[in-house]
Amino acid sequence: MNWIETSNPDRQNERMLGFNYYGRSIIDKNGAVKFIKIMKAWYCMFDVAPEDVILRGRYTWSEDDEGQQSTGEYERLKFNRREVLDLLNRLTEFSSMVETGEYLIIYIGI
């Protein structure tokens, strides 16, 4: 997502590439063009995925009974393909509205 042009409203709308991890980011008409292409490409990719989409998440550590880090593993994130496709389709529709210059997408961080 670091290819998408955004602005940072917390820094006088400073232009940037990508999204603030914890803060806000705004996608305007300029960023919507690439965002639409990426959402459509992801849609095509997930359209051929199995019904249960399993993605690798963050690497996390487990602690033993004494509070010591013992083993680590990646999170397994499970999603329903249809739900992912619906979400990607809605994001594409929102982005098409933003592309007109009349709307913005505001990302508020995680």
Describe the fold and architecture.
The strands form 3 sheets. A two-stranded antiparallel sheet has the order 1-2. The chain has a two-stranded antiparallel sheet with strand order 3-6. The model has no long low-confidence stretch (mean pLDDT 93). The longest helix has 19 residues, at 29-47. It has a domain at 5-49 and 81-107. α1 (29-47) runs antiparallel to α2. It contains 2 helices and 6 strands. It has 110 residues and is α+β, with helices and mostly antiparallel strands.
Topology at a glance:
Layout: E1 5-8, E2 14-17, E3 25-27, H1 29-47, E4 52-63, E5 69-80, H2 81-99, E6 105-107
Antiparallel strand pairs: 1-2, 3-6, 4-5
Notable traits:
35% helix, 2 helices, 110 residues, two-stranded antiparallel ribbon, alpha+beta, 6 strands
Short characterization:
With 110 residues, this protein is an alpha+beta fold.
Radius of gyration (CA) equals 18 Å
**How far apart are the first and last residues' alpha carbons, in Å?**
15 Å
Shape: flat
- What fraction, in percent, of the residue positions are helical? 25-40%
**Largest sheet: spatial strand order:** 1-2
Count every beta strand, where a strand is a DSSP E run of 2 or more residues: 6
User: Structural class, please?
Assistant: alpha+beta
Helix tally equals 2
Low-confidence stretches: none
Give the helices and strands as they follow along the chain: EEEHEEHE
